Each structure stands twice: as structure tokens, then as C-alpha cells.
UniProtKB/TrEMBL annotation, chain A:
SUPFAM superfamilies: Amidase signature (AS) enzymes (SSF75304). This is Glutamyl-tRNA(Gln) amidotransferase subunit A. Pfam families: Amidase. Heterotrimer of A, B and C subunits. The active site is at K80, S155, S179. Its EC number is 6.3.5.7. HAMAP family: GatA (MF_00120).
TrEMBL record, chain B:
Heterotrimer of A, B and C subunits. One of its GO terms (biological process) is translation. Coiled coil: none annotated. InterPro entries: Asn/Gln-tRNA_amidoTrfase_suB/E, Asn/Gln-tRNA_Trfase_suB/E_cat, Asn/Gln_amidotransferase, Asn/Gln_tRNA_amidoTrase-B-like, GatB, GatB_C_1, GatB_Yqey_C_2, Gln-tRNA_amidoTrfase_suB_CS. Its EC number is 6.3.5.-. Belongs to the GatB/GatE family. GatB subfamily. It comes from Roseburia zhanii. Allows the formation of correctly charged Asn-tRNA(Asn) or Gln-tRNA(Gln) through the transamidation of misacylated Asp-tRNA(Asn) or Glu-tRNA(Gln) in organisms which lack either or both of asparaginyl-tRNA or glutaminyl-tRNA synthetases. The reaction takes place in the presence of glutamine and ATP through an activated phospho-Asp-tRNA(Asn) or phospho-Glu-tRNA(Gln). It holds the Pfam family GatB_N. This is Aspartyl/glutamyl-tRNA(Asn/Gln) amidotransferase subunit B. GO terms for molecular function: ATP binding; glutaminyl-tRNA synthase (glutamine-hydrolyzing) activity. Residues 330-477 form the Asn/Gln amidotransferase domain. Keywords: ATP-binding, Ligase, Nucleotide-binding, Protein biosynthesis. It catalyses: L-aspartyl-tRNA(Asn) + L-glutamine + ATP + H2O = L-asparaginyl-tRNA(Asn) + L-glutamate + ADP + phosphate + 2 H(+); L-glutamyl-tRNA(Gln) + L-glutamine + ATP + H2O = L-glutaminyl-tRNA(Gln) + L-glutamate + ADP + phosphate + H(+).
């Protein structure tokens, strides 16, 4: 077994126990990237070897001095390319930020650095996190480490593929409508979208501000709990940040679901759901039931309204959030132009890809005078009603169980021609963002094509511990399966 | 003009608030500074940066709202106003559209004929200022300075309740005083910390419907506002009289040419696509908070006016002028506090200070001298160390350079000469040198006495004690 097949926490423990050094771990990750990156293309930017090893050396010294005691100290991490990293290219996988080097580091990443993380690179994503396949990246598509003809999912496809390919030990992703949970499911790894306000958004380049949350992607639930514990903080720089006192997520790593109530929304198992996915997810429910949980089916309601409400709200916010990319202050500016208006128009026409433009136009439309009430306000009301539906459900259940995506990873090139179909693929994840809830996706099976199937557990606001506990209990019945590409040692 | 017309005017007044830091970040709001030296990721619109509301902005806005009889919105929100312009780093301005902090206020003004009238305030909302564009003709480029980006503003929107330029000026004057007294802003029109846009329409006298209005921008002084109103009123009446239509548009005033031109019409008005800013949470204003702001509210002008007359026994006229600007009132109170001579302080402010302000074309807000230096100067005169003409000279230097008068008088040897021996010697010489004047005096010409006093003062470089000069001179002449 190679070093990179270790989980983040297992590696971190070995580093703390002085069985391995942070420098060796960093070198292993860099070697793995060298061997596999051509096949998977999970990164937009791989950090310079010299800088990584220097940082790892400094971290190692502080570990030896007893200054860095976090289990993640010295463990190499990859960061989704929509989080600002001081001095390191941050592109959002867009041409418009092809040369953008931030002057500051995102709060969540800073929290990791304080814990002693070694950043190994910036991962590929759908441009500005708009997409479900990582194919809208200006820097080329990422491949699924289980089968390179398939997409890794998205938008955090680079982060999930890098973890599954074992190019890094864990990664940060961001989730606006399922962007951590869906690619985690497609790549056979575990990812958490925390309660809105748990992880600071300061330094996360916004897509849909009221829905965006940063979260962990890793090999298992234990890793995810430890990472979430490290990145969560109350941040005065983010007005939507919540001051929580219950951030000790690792305390929920208990193999016990006796008496916990699981609700299965019938609406999640209707047409459109792949048979194999359905079977695997229901089997997982059965496993949990056998472990002592109480499983019940129920009607969630409003499920069909989540996707339209989401696209109205997210695109409206995006149309305004992305206005700042104009060629004036940073990023790409068109080569030839006449006057200001022409500079704006050419810069943005050339700098943004098709999906981003589509969503900016959609968002501008729903906010325009005369349409605001009919679309945007109605979507906000729908969002509030969806939250009420979940409130009703969580009055009865501890956890809601369902699939993370209707199918396993589609073939590369099969999604972008039909955006509506791609949007519908977010049906199980999107309402979680609208309601601000925490959700976890973890592997629960492999389909006949050899692609991983993801199980999603949804908790009430601030109830990460319940989903972590249940996911952990389920995971004990099913050891981590490494992707075929993870074993590759030669480029 | 065959018909009688009535002018209907409403005002949008922007006021820069006097907070130390910007509305959504910790950068300084200080005026000036090297370009982009008061900036951070937030006020330059860096990707990933987030706004955090400065509470002091809310308190100032609340204070102005309370002083103008507004209702305070208990849960107000910020909205994004989307438009592309390079002085606006995010390409949206954070402002308030749907739930502004204050609504339904009014202020009382005095009209020309001495009657009282209320001007309604539709709303007051909080927003951020934009940066400044600098166009470099030589390099053929434009550069942007974001120092002003994110400086807090309130916009006070009046009802269309004003009917003349005089009422507009009275309303602006009243607003300015209230805001200055609250310490919420210095309200300098020239420096742009107070800016007014004029919405104006005309209609036939007696009509109850409004005519088509225009909005006038770029008004940098009360005088410019008055001129622009007169000009726009006549322009609209001329159009109507000629059977043409007034177009709803935004116009820009050029005060040097006394002329306005159309900037944009309603047809090409932008759709700002306002929506609630998801990066900011609603501001909840509790009753306790309102009470705290009310309790902290400083004495306003009306109260001060009465107190100056009762406590300091100043004439109504003095009190009126001293309370006419917050700055003068502050200097008056601070100086009186030190020297305890309100009438003398008032005299210096009403006389020499006002004269110098006028001469140097300055506003009271531009006064830089320290109250302690004026108090010391008054002390020097009262104890007879300097005479009043020397005092006036010294005051000019205090006014310009805020020097310490005690030290200055000492260094420059300006103390009144009270030495009778030295004086007598000088006067004897002058009497001997001017036999003609002495003769004139003895022939009953009192004027000659004045000449001799003048010569003495000149010889003493103005430092002689005038009473002693008179006494000695009379004694010598009577011999």
C-alpha cells in the first residue's frame, strides 16, 4: 500500500507519531500528481515543488516543537480554485481570471494553514462553479478516476477527482446546489456541505452568495469531521457567519444509530432515478435499520419546485456577483477595444464561457424591472416554503436519507448539449442549499459499469453531528474502495 | 408670459457621514491621501471579499431621521443597485431601496414672508460612495482612485413640497444645521460632503396635478442651486408656452455658463435590477437602540439659541449668528468655557472672525484656530498687556496660523509700553519736533492733538498704552 492511499487522519497520526514526516508526505503527493495528473487533470495549478517542500519542512519543525498538534498538520491538501490563496493563481476555472493572483487568503484556507496544512495546488471546477460535470472549465475537463471516459461530476469535480485519484489526502470544495455532494458521489469519496454560515465565505469567490458553503472532501467520514472541525469558525468578516459553540464534529464519530429516526422521502425515488442507484441507496437504509435505526417513508413535498427556485435565485445573485469581472481592476482584458463600453463588452464576451453567460443572462432577466416580483420574489417565497417542508420533516426524523444524484457519472461530453437535463441532475441536492441544511454524501455501492454510487444524508440546521454519526456507522459496514486510477504510479 | 405658473421642487440630498471608517470595511474615510492608499479587498471589489456593516453609519442615519421626525424602520435591509461604471469596483452599489432606514419625516422652514412651512421627507437611506476617476489627457487614459469608495452616505429624499429657490435654500440650510449639530457630517457643498440633486416641474397655478419633472445634477453651492432653479423653471415655462413638451430627463448644470444640458432621458434610463444584498443580514433596530441614540443626541440649534440668550446673556442677534453654524457655536462655547467672558468671545467671532472669513472667502467650517488661543488673546487685552489694535493684528495671525498669542507677543515685543519715563521722553521729542501742531492745539484745534497722538503711537510702533499717551501729552502741552 502506498503512502497516498492513507486517509488524511491516518497519515496525520503517523506524522504526529513521527513515523513519517510532513516533507515525505508532501513529496508523496507531488509524485502522485506527476504520475496521474495527465490522466485525471484534477488541478488548474499545482504548487511549485520547492515551495511545497519548504512549507512542509517548516510545518514539520513546528510539529516537532509541539506547536502544531492538529491531526491535519503536515497533511497535503488541494483547494478548489474558487478560494483565494495569497500569492497563488486563483482562476475559478475561468479565462476571465486567468492571471488573477489574490492579495489575501480565504478564511477557511487560513484556518487550515493555522492547523498546519500544506497546500499542494488548486483544483479544477466548473467555471465559477456553474455546472455539474467540471466540463465548463476553461482549462479543460477533469476525468473520473474510476473511468476516464466519464465526468467526475461538479462543480467541485477537481477536488473530488484529486482525492479519489489519491493525488492529495483531502480537499476543500464548495457547494451551492450540490457541488460537493454530487461529485463526491460520482468519484466514490465523502463530502460534507455544512449548515449555511458554519464555514466563513470570506475569500470564496461568490456564485450564489445565499447558498454557497465551503466543505470538506476526503476518503472517509472521520477525515471529513476532522477537516470540518478545522475550517469552521465564526468570522466577523462574513456577516452571514454564525457563532456556533458545537463545532466539535469529531465527537460524533460513534458507531451507534440505535433509535435514530430516518425519513425516506418518497418523492426522491420516483421516475428519473436510476434503478441501480435506487437499490444501493435503499440497501443502505436497510443496513442502518439492521443497526437499530428506525426507517420510515414520508412525503416531503415541493420537491419539483426546488430546481426552478434554485436557478432563479442562484443566477440572480451570480449576475450581480460576476459583474465585477470587467477588465478594469484585475483579470483578463480584451486586447483591442474602442472606449469603455466596448472594453466591457468584449472582455466579458471573450472572458466568460457559454454556461456562465447563460446564467448571467438568466439572472439579469429575473431581476429586471417588471419581472422581479414574478420570478425573483416568487423564488424567494418558494425557498421559504421548502424550508418549512424540511422543518416539518425534522420534527419527525433525525436524518433524511436519499440518493446524492439520480445516476452515476455520465460520459464526458454527454451533458452540456442539454442544460435542462443537467440542471435536473441536481434534484436531490439543491433543496438542501435552499433550506441552508447540512448534507453528507458517501459511497454506498458500485454500479455494473464500475462507477460509484453515493448515499446522501441530510440533517436539520446545525445537526451535522447526526449525519456524521449515521454516516460513520454506515461506513463501518463498508470499507473504503480505492479508485482504479489511485494505484497508478507511472505517468 | 400669459399664465401664472407654480414651480414644484423636490430634493435628493446626499450627505457624507463623519465616520472614521468606511461603511463596509475598516479603511479610513479621511479626505485626501495618496490614491488608493485607503483601500482593502472589500472597497476595491476584490473577488471573495465581503461587506460588514459599520454600526456607526446606522446610528448617524437614525440620529438624522429622529431629528427630522422620521419613522425608523425596525428591520431595514440593504439592496444592490447594479450598473457598470469603473468608479464602482463591484459594478453594483450597496444601497437601500425596499426597506430604507427612515421614512415619513418632515422639517420646518421659514418662508420668505416669515411664515412657517413643513417640508416632507419621503425617506432617508444608507449607501456607499463610489471611487473617483481621473482622466489623464496626456497619457490618453483614465485611472481610478478608490479612497472614496465605500465612504458612507445617507440620501435624504424630500417630498415635492418646495415652491421656490428660497424655500429650497431654507430647507437645505435647515438640514445642514441639523446634521452638523448631530455631528453626523460637516456638510460642505464645495468638498462634496453634501450634494443636492433638484427635481423640478412647473404647472399652471391652481393645478393639482404635477407637470413633467427634470432632475438637475452637479450643483456645488447654494448660489448655483438658486441659479439652476431659476434657469430650469424658465426653460420649462418657455417650452410650455411654445407649445412643446418637457421631457423627463436628467440634466447637468454648468454654473460658469449658467446653463444646463441633458445627460440622459427616461427612455435610456438604466434598469438597476435592485435586489436584497445576500452578503448582508437585515439590520434590526430595537426600541432600546433608538432610545440610546435619542439620549445621546446633542443639543440642537433651537435649544442652543435660547440658552445663549439666557445663560450667556447674549443679544438675540449674536446668538442667531453664533448658532448659525455648528463650528462657530463650538468655538464660542469652548472659548467661553476657558475665559468666562461670553460677550467678548462673541465680539471677536462676530467681528474680526466673520470679517476675515469673508475676506478670505472661507466658511466657518474652515476655521482652524484653537479656542485656547482666542481666550489667551482676550486675556492679554483685558490685563492691558496689549492694546486693541495690536490684538487685531495678532488675531489675524492666530486665524491664519493658530499661533500662541502669549508667546508671539513676547517674541515680537508687542507688549504695551506702560513705562511713563520712556513714554515721556518720546512725547517730549515729538512735541519739540512739531511746533506747528503745538501752536495749532493752543489755537483751539483739537485735531492737532490727534495728530500728535498718532505720531507717538507710530514712534512706539503701536505698543503705547493709549490712555497714558493722552495724559502725558496733555500735561506737556498745557505747560
Amino acid at each position: 500500500m502506498s503512502l497516498t492511499s492513507e486517509s488524511a487522519v491516518a497519515l496525520g497520526k503517523k506524522i504526529q507519531a513521527k513515523e513519517i514526516t510532513a516533507v515525505e508526505a508532501a513529496q508523496a503527493a507531488l509524485d502522485a500528481i506527476r504520475a496521474k495528473e495527465d490522466k485525471v487533470h484534477a488541478f488548474v495549478t499545482v504548487a511549485e515543488e520547492e515551495a511545497v517542500l519548504k512549507r512542509a519542512g517548516e510545518v514539520q519543525k513546528q510539529i516537532e516543537q509541539g506547536i502544531l498538534t492538529n491531526v491535519l498538520a503536515g497533511v497535503p491538501v488541494a483547494i478548489k480554485d474558487n478560494m483565494c490563496t495569497k500569492g497563488m493563481l486563483t482562476t475559478c476555472s475561468s479565462k476571465i481570471l486567468e492571471n488573477f493572483i489574490p492579495t489575501y487568503t480565504a478564511e477557511a484556507v487560513l484556518n487550515l494553514e493555522k492547523a498546519g496544512a500544506v497546500i499542494i495546488g488548486k483544483t479544477n471546477m466548473d467555471e465559477f462553479a456553474m455546472g455539474s460535470t467540471t466540463e465548463t472549465s476553461y482549462y479543460g475537463a477533469t476525468k473520473n478516476p474510476w473511468n476516464e471516459n466519464h465526468v467526475p461530476g461538479g462543480s467541485s469535480g477537481g477536488s473530488c477527482a484529486a482525492v479519489a485519484a489519491e493525488e492529495c489526502f483531502y480537499a476543500l470544495g464548495s457547494d451551492t446546489g450540490g457541488s460537493i455532494r454530487q461529485p463526491s458521489s460520482f468519484c466514490g469519496v465523502t463530502g460534507i456541505k455544512p449548515t449555511y454560515g458554519t464555514v466563513s465565505r470570506y475569500g470564496l469567490i461568490a456564485y450564489g452568495s445565499s447558498l454557497d458553503q465551503i466543505g470538506p472532501v476526503a476518503k472517509d467520514v472521520t477525515d471529513c469531521a476532522a477537516i470540518l472541525e478545522a475550517i469552521s469558525s465564526y468570522d466577523k468578516k462574513d456577516s452571514t457567519s454564525i457563532n456556533r459553540k458545537d463545532l466539535d464534529f469529531t465527537s460524533a464519530l460513534v458507531d451507534d444509530v440505535k433509535g435514530m429516526k430516518i425519513g425516506i422521502p418518497k418523492d426522491y425515488f420516483k421516475e428519473g432515478l436510476d434503478e441501480e442507484v435506487k437499490e444501493a441507496v435503499l440497501h443502505a437504509a436497510k443496513v442502518l435499520e439492521e443497526k437499530g435505526a428506525i426507517v420510515e417513508e414520508f412525503d416531503l413535498g415541493l420537491v419539483d419546485y426546488a430546481i426552478p427556485a434554485y436557478y432563479v435565485i442562484a443566477c440572480a445573485e451570480a449576475s450581480s456577483n460576476l459583474a465585477r469581472f470587467d477588465g478594469v481592476k484585475y483579470g483578463y482584458r480584451t486586447a483591442d477595444y474602442e472606449g469603455l463600453h466596448n472594453m466591457y463588452k468584449k472582455t466579458r464576451s471573450e472572458g466568460f464561457g457559454a454556461e456562465v453567460k447563460r446564467r448571467i443572462m438568466l439572472g439579469s432577466f429575473v431581476l429586471s424591472s417588471g419581472y422581479y416580483d414574478a420570478y425573483y420574489l416568487k423564488a424567494l417565497r418558494t425557498k421559504a416554503m421548502i424550508k418549512q417542508e424540511f422543518d416539518k420533516a425534522f420534527a419527525k426524523y433525525d436524518v433524511i436519507l436519499g440518493p446524492a444524484a439520480p445516476s452515476t457519472a455520465p460520459l464526458l461530453g454527454s451533458s452540456l448539449d442539454d442544460p435542462m437535463k443537467m440542471y435536473l441532475g441536481d434534484i436531490y441536492t439543491i433543496s438542501v442549499n435552499l433550506a441552508g441544511l447540512p448534507g453528507i454524501s458517501l459511497p454506498c455501492g458500485i454500479d455494473k459499469k464500475g462507477l460509484p454510487i453515493g448515499l446522501q444524508l441530510i440533517g436539520d440546521c446545525f445537526n451535522e453531528k447526526k449525519i456524521i454519526q449515521m454516516a460513520y456507522a454506515f461506513e463501518q459496514t463498508r470499507p473504503y474502495q480505492h479508485s482504479p486510477l489511485s494505484a497508478c504510479t507511472e505517468a | 408670459m400669459s399664465k401664472e405658473y407654480e414651480t414644484v421642487i423636490g430634493l435628493e440630498v446626499h450627505v457624507e457621514l463623519a465616520t472614521k471608517t468606511k461603511i463596509f470595511c475598516g479603511c479610513s474615510t479621511a479626505f485626501g491621501g495618496a490614491p488608493n492608499s485607503h483601500t482593502c479587498p472589500v472597497c476595491t471589489g476584490m473577488p471573495g471579499s465581503l461587506p460588514v456593516l459599520n454600526k456607526q453609519v446606522v446610528e448617524y442615519a437614525m440620529a438624522v431621521g429622529l431629528a427630522t421626525n422620521c419613522d425608523i424602520t425596525k428591520d431595514c435591509k440593504f439592496d444592490r443597485k447594479n450598473y457598470f461604471y469603473p468608479d464602482n469596483p463591484q459594478n453594483y452599489q450597496i444601497s437601500q431601496l425596499y426597506l430604507p432606514i427612515c421614512r415619513n419625516g418632515k422639517v420646518e422652514i421659514e418662508t420668505e414672508d416669515g411664515n412657517k412651512k413643513f417640508i416632507g421627507i419621503h425617506e432617508i437611506h444608507m449607501e456607499e460612495d463610489a471611487g473617483k476617476l481621473v482622466h489623464d489627457e496626456w497619457e490618453d487614459c483614465s485611472i481610478v482612485d478608490f479612497n472614496r469608495s465605500g465612504v458612507p452616505l445617507i440620501e435624504i429624499v424630500s417630498e415635492p413640497d418646495m415652491r421656490s429657490a428660497e424655500e429650497v435654500i431654507a430647507y437645505l440650510d435647515k438640514l445642514r444645521l441639523i446634521i452638523q449639530y448631530l455631528g453626523a457630517s460637516d456638510c460642505k457643498l464645495q468638498e462634496g460632503s453634501m450634494r443636492a440633486d433638484v427635481n423640478l416641474s412647473v404647472r399652471e397655478a391652481g393645478s393639482t396635478t404635477f407637470g413633467t419633472r427634470t432632475e438637475m445634477k452637479n450643483l456645488n453651492s447654494f448660489k448655483a442651486i438658486a441659479r439652476a432653479i431659476e434657469n430650469e423653471k424658465n426653460r420649462q415655462i418657455d417650452l410650455i408656452e411654445a407649445g412643446e413638451k418637457v421631457i423627463q430627463e436628467t440634466r447637468r448644470w454648468d454654473d460658469t455658463k449658467e446653463y444646463s444640458y441633458a445627460m440622459r432621458s427616461k427612455e435610456d434610463a438604466q434598469d438597476y435590477r435592485y435586489f436584497p444584498d445576500p452578503d448582508l443580514v437585515p439590520v434590526h433596530i430595537s426600541d432600546e437602540w433608538i432610545e440610546r441614540v435619542k439620549a445621546a443626541q446633542p443639543e440642537l440649534r433651537t435649544e442652543k439659541l435660547a440658552r445663549y440668550q439666557s445663560e450667556f446673556e447674549l443679544p438675540a442677534y449674536d446668538a442667531e449668528i453664533l448658532t448659525g453654524t455648528k463650528k462657530l457655536a463650538d468655538i464660542f462655547e469652548a472659548t467661553t468655557e476657558i475665559c468666562g467672558k461670553p460677550k467678548k468671545v462673541s465680539n471677536w467671532l462676530m467681528g474680526e472672525t466673520m470679517r476675515l472669513l469673508k475676506e478670505k472667502n472661507m466658511e466657518p467650517e474652515d476655521i482652524r484656530f484653537s479656542p485656547v488661543h482666542l481666550a489667551d488673546l482676550i486675556g492679554l487685552v483685558d490685563e492691558g498687556t496689549i492694546n486693541s489694535s495690536v490684538a487685531k493684528e495678532v488675531f489675524e495671525i492666530i486665524f491664519d496660523e493658530d499661533i500662541d498669542p502669549k508667546q508671539y507677543v513676547e517674541e515680537k515685543g508687542l507688549k504695551t509700553v506702560n513705562d511713563a519715563g520712556a513714554l515721556r521722553e518720546t512725547i517730549e521729542k515729538i512735541v519739540n519736533d512739531n511746533p506747528k501742531s503745538v501752536e495749532d492745539f493752543h489755537n483751539g484745534k483739537e485735531k492737532a492733538m490727534g495728530f500728535l497722538v498718532g505720531q507717538t503711537m507710530k514712534a512706539m510702533k503701536g505698543k503705547a498704552n493709549p490712555a497714558m499717551v493722552n495724559e502725558i501729552l496733555r500735561e506737556l502741552l498745557s505747560r
